[in-house]
Design the sequence.
């Protein structure tokens, strides 16, 4: 794939197209092989582009979409009554082979529902999962699912483990350590789904399954991939974001106490901010939807320009590594070993 | 209750009786009205007491117990085959009215099972819950369940909400705001149990139910009491502990970089350590078992002397506030309003 085209849902997110257009143009400049398709209200997008100089229009197309899915719209409604939404048109570019990936900062539930409807899941995958990187003491861990699937059967957790391992490999980890998130490391701990999933994973061919990790083990870096249902994953991700920003606020307060500490605070603050961004990975870098016949990256609704750029970069890596085909190959190998 | 007696399981925890005896004697000195019953291997406890001076033996009794429950022992085994364990004998002192509360740093599962067997739950309560205080931007929030109950029905979550509210009141909060932990604040979000529990709580008399909070809302201090199943609560608590200690390590590293920052680091480190302790509340202050016909506080297995002291203090507050009777009264009031 010499010249990947990324379809950008220019209308999604809390701030409208302004940040998204800025981030897109910055990526276009930074990556000379990149082509973008900005999907949304064409006149508005043109107006925003006109504010920037030196835009290489030969690598930038604008695709008109008449409708916008609101951030609080029900997924079912978005699916039924808005065939011309920017999100859907962007996904259809991927389905039609006119783009190799879609990036959106829009309504998560709608993006999940539309992705599944437009792109379909890979054979053997029941439900797509949402995955993001969480910083740990030793590096990063891929956590899934982050909220797309509230209740998960053992079989779904098993599929997530396989998908997570492929994503870690896509991002450069060799023989990633895969673990199930649990409330203890002994065999007797956990709910029925987790215990059954553990049995499936122990028997899985070619997967480096290391057993259970607990919430603290995740941050100690015990695994490269941590699997849980979407309720648990979402709570873990959001509470971690909330805790990190509370700690950052307290440390800032601490630094503000006297002149000496204020001086050092000024030195340390950029590093603390970076830590905080690191600890809100989905907000900062985007999360991938996994298990689809196509690449979809979700940027946070309130992502900054840099955050949206990171999401485009993530999509580019997945395109370069051909993530869905890797996943398809892995799943087929599993099928041949007798798993359903 | 002028002279409360607290039964201490002296043999529980990762470090054996040494820390526990030290913490117990410190509490005895600090609280002149306190009486303690140290339960365990009497000769060993006597030996440890002999190392301390000025111990008021008139307020300290030693109760011999021949067996110890191991930290990795199965609860069912602890229940069946160790009738003479220090944990069980301490709980029996409470059941027999010879002590007003029990504090243990031992095996959590065994403590839950034995408490339920020896003390019984209050009428109307199906399962005891484990609760601890989590620091937030505005103060503290009581989080339950922390791992005692892996799967919870809507009715169990409802009971937890009532129990959590009573605990918050016991600790001094007027009309505590009660919320269900969820992965969104819209009505359509969440799993079936949470949605059903929301319906029950909306109709609950005398409960200040404010709806759903998310993981980040918890740390923003949106609620005084946050209710979830034990799997979710345990993951939230342990991942928060893991994240806080990871951040503390990074901040320390940051401070170590040059002479100036090292100097400030030395100033700030005690405050950072305190923050970290604050963020590991169950480890530091102990967690209460709620819904029993008696007061039981679980100190963390690897609690420090200060941590175990805090757990004894927590038990003392619950004794002074007559926690189980408050809870009984509240549950009866609910029954009269037609709930089952």
Sequence:
């Amino acid at each position: 794939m010499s010249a990947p085209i990324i379809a950008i849902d220019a209308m999604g997110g809390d701030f409208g197209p302004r940040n998204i257009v800025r981030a897109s143009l910055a990526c276009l400049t930074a990556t000379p092989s990149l082509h973008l398709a900005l999907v949304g209200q064409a006149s508005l997008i043109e107006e925003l582009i006109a504010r920037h100089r030196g835009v290489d229009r030969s690598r930038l197309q604008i695709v008109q979409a008449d409708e916008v899915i609101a951030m609080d719209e029900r997924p079912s409604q978005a699916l039924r009554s808005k065939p011309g939404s920017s999100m859907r048109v962007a996904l259809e570019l991927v389905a039609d082979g006119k783009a190799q990936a879609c990036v959106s900062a829009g309504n998560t539930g709608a993006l999940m529902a539309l992705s599944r409807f437009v792109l379909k899941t890979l054979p053997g995958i029941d439900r797509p999962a949402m995955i993001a990187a969480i910083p740990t003491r030793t590096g990063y861990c891929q956590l899934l699912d982050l909220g797309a699937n509230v209740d998960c059967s053992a079989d779904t957790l098993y599929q997530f483990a396989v998908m997570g391992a492929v994503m870690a490999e896509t991002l450069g980890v060799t023989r990633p350590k895969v673990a199930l998130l649990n409330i203890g490391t002994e065999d007797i701990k956990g709910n029925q789904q987790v215990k059954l999933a553990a049995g499936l994973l122990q028997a899985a061919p070619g997967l480096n399954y290391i057993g259970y990790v607990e919430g603290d083990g995740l941050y100690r870096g015990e695994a490269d991939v941590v699997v849980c249902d979407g309720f648990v994953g979402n709570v873990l991700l959001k509470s971690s974001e909330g805790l990190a920003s509370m700690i950052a606020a307290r440390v800032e307060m601490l630094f503000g106490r006297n002149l000496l500490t204020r001086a050092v605070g000024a030195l340390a603050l950029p590093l603390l901010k970076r830590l905080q961004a690191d600890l809100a990975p989905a907000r900062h870098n985007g999360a991938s939807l996994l298990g689809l016949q196509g690449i979809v990256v979700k940027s946070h609704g309130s992502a900054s320009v840099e955050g949206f750029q990171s999401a485009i970069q993530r999509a580019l890596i997945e395109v370069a590594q051909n993530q869905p085909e890797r996943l398809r190959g892995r799943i087929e190998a599993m099928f041949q070993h007798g798993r359903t």
User: Anything to note?
Assistant: The first strand of chain B starts at residue 5 and ends at 9.
